[in-house]
User: Fold these one by one.
Assistant:
Number 1:
Amino acid sequence: MQIASIDNLLKRNQLSVTDSRKKILELFKEHNGAMAHSDIEKKTDEKFDRVTIYRTLQTFVEKGIIHTIPTPDNSVLYALCKDSCSSTGHHHDNHVHFVCDNCNITYCLDSVVTPQVDLPQGFEPKVIDVVVTGICKNCQV
């Protein structure tokens, strides 16, 4: 994504255009999968402190720019949302996530929709996360 479109994305979400926000969005645009807070910390070359990165990620989640992906060890990964997901506070990222056992990259499988779960009466779903593990197409070579 070009700098102008990153600036536009921030402005469209009524966010100030700051160096930290621009750099973190650039990282998401360049990366081929989901990233952890620590990945972002390493890739920003210590330009931004942990708290700045954390607050930026939380703001992006709240605005629907990125979404969270749970991991088996109860940590969180972050991935860019598609345009249809960008309504504030209402993520529409109902797709399956795939974690490669070999390269450890987590992919958003946008074409694979999360299955409908029929819950008992009185239960209302808020978030349904489906994570599939296996070997990605790049590692099967």
Number 2:
Amino acid sequence: MGRVLLVPVRIYEDSMQGARIIADYLDERGVDVVWAPGIGSDDDCDLDGVDLVVSLGGDGTLLRAAHIVGSADAEIPILGLSYGHLGFLTCDTEGQDITTVVGQALAGELRESRRATIAATMLGLDDQGREVVRESTALNEVALSRGGSGKIVEFEVRVNGRRVTELRSDGLVISTATGSTGYALSAGGPIVDPDFRGMVCVPIAPHTIRARAFLTAASDVVEVKITDGRSLDRCVFSDGNDMGKGLVPLALRVRRAQRDVILLSNAPDGVGFYDAVSRVFYGQVR
């Protein structure tokens, strides 16, 4: 094991304390430690020789770690240690020494879960009226939503060039199976097993009772064309990051990305995705 990247939440002392404990543990074993830069500087993170990423926070911190490793030349597994509010994607370390879990990750003793990601291309207009194209990759979702004015968005949805519907709503969530338990679920979408490789498309508060969420195949391409008949105040987010900042979004194209994200799990044999679903979303205690 060459180097380990630590991604803590710097404003939370318990997260930073955990990171320092892990850093000391790794230093004693001759493993180099790399610290993630402050939020907003992820593109400057040095991933050369990094073989493991440890995030210390909630699911949002793990998504940030996934964004960081997305720029690496090779797949780097992510170990999520829960210091947040939800922690659905992170390991359960309650009652365990976090260094023990990190040691298991270093020894290759934890289970790997490959998670599909999605790639989004957004077309927008800048303040000079020029067309600008931006691209992003997401582990959870890409979402079109209304802006600060609160006015609805009107848009057409196509899959592989075939028109599906035209909607007036607060927006649309296009998520991975992993993201099905995030924003998409809050918008009324289904919980989807992480082995599903397609996308989940969920309208946000549509102004019709006929709108329904739907699933795509792994090879499908979802296209969203935003009409000009409504407010120009709208946003596009990729895993919570503003893709359309400073632009007026016009169109969005989303497909499955080529690279997966590898998440590490310390769940015992026989404990899987639906056990976590039961615990987190249905309040069942075993």
